[in-house]
Amino acid sequence: MQGTISKLQTIGMLIALVSAIGGGFYTWGTFNQRIDALEKKKYVVNQKVDLSEIRKEIKELDNDVTVQLKFLQEQIQKANVEININKATLEYLAAKIDEVKLENDNPLLKGL
Known about the structure:
The protein is mostly helical. It has two domains: 1-42; 50-112. Helix content is 83%, strand content 0%. The protein contains two helices and no strands. The chain has helices spanning 2-40, 52-105.
């Protein structure tokens, strides 16, 4: 009985060894097949891209930005004019307030 079990174990180990070696060769063959497929694939190295539409859009956007920039510059100039007018008005009002303060500080005019 022990001889039969020993022979079955030997046969089982032999089947396992052959299966492992066969699996290794199968995997190696699969890798070689993938490498062959990659080697046969044609690659385009110098492919030309048509950028004319993109250049046209960039030119249109540049024109739009230029128009908007001119509009903003005009608005800034108008705001600067208004700021200068308000600054002059504030200086005038400050001078008038100083005059009123001087008139009210005069003790001789308080009785009148």
